[in-house]
Design a protein that fits this description.
It is a single chain. This protein is an alpha/beta fold. The protein folds into three domains: about 290 residues, Metallo-dependent phosphatases (Purple Acid Phosphatase, chain A, domain 2, 4-Layer Sandwich), CATH 3.60.21; about 70 residues, no CATH class; about 45 residues, no CATH class. The chain has eleven helices and 17 strands. Helix 1 packs parallel to helix 2 and helix 9 runs antiparallel to helix 11.
Length: about 425
Amino acid sequence: MQMKILHLSDIHMGSSFSHGKTDPATGRNSRLQDFTSALSGCIDAALEQEVDLVLFGGDAFPDSTPPPYVQEAFASQFNRLAQGQIPTVLLIGNHDQHSHGQGGASLSIYRTLAGNSFIVGDQITTLKIETKSGPIQVTTLPWINRSGLLTRPETAGLSLSEINQLILKKLQAILEQQIRSLDLQIPAILLAHAMVDRAVYGAEKFLAVSNRGFQIPLSFLARSEYDYVALGHVHTHQNLKPDNNPPVVYAGSIERVDFSEEGEEKGYVLIEIAQDSKPKQLNWSFNPLATRPFKTIKVNVTASPNPQAQIIKAIKSSQINEAVVRLIYDIYPEQYDLIDVKAFDELLKEAHSYSIKANPATNKSHQRLPEMGVGSHLTPLDALKMYVESRQGELKDIAQDMLEAAETLMAQN
């Protein structure tokens, strides 16, 4: 007998609105429909394949307090699973937690709906779930907050690095306890929302070293007692164990959140477990979804005698129909008078949405900060802060992440 499982993650319903436009029929942002369509594709597959179980790896919304119409879009799709009598585990991710995990989570309400169809994974435990093809064990590992595993007295006087090591020590002991409780005759899956070392990060890459999260060693999760490890949090689909012993798989996000995910395929994972064979045979496949394309058109016109024509040529040679497009061109300030932005607007109308940005170029190298010269008494962290402040125009979007990452690295040394 074969058991079928669908693994999806990181829906982020209600995000990426800055890349959409208002739908005149509904008055709502068009990107909400994009995310709803992507989720609908996952639910369609679960129903068509008649899966036994759906595993959601966390991060349903961009934050824990989504507006009602966004919650409705999410719930209307998952309700189809309840109607199809397909049990579903909804894991709590970092974006689902309210007040760092102290005020509940946006998904908590689902434990009260649709009978026993929905199981909310908000603690580390092992569930035994009855499906139409037999029982399965699912160990849930939601996003870990320091306050969730440690008390204030335990962390008093410790550095960030020491706190993280203490968390990992406790986590390893808890997971070991869950593993020892498994019935090895029954399929077992670990469902986790976590940053795992060796992962390639996408939109979440700045969280990897900041004090808002910490990495879990792959060895904690890649245990032979599990047939499959289903991961959420990282938006790039990938398998961290190419030998599939066991597969440790990030399903990835189901729709592009921003341009950092421009070149990534989005989709879900379908898992099949042959329970009659000894040992159990597991196969899995990544299934792409039809999602909104993102397209960057980047042009350097600093050496062009006709920058307008060069930019127009770049636009015309790009596939932009119904895509989210950003046009970026490097240009000298003295060339501004040669540019007619209205002509770009006309050409970009066939895009779903677009933005235009001129990057002013200069022939001069960046000036050195005298405070950071030879003989300076600044600490490395102070020097970085001064550098970031001097480049606020370029680094404003990542400045805080850079400083937090530096503080973490300094604490480890």
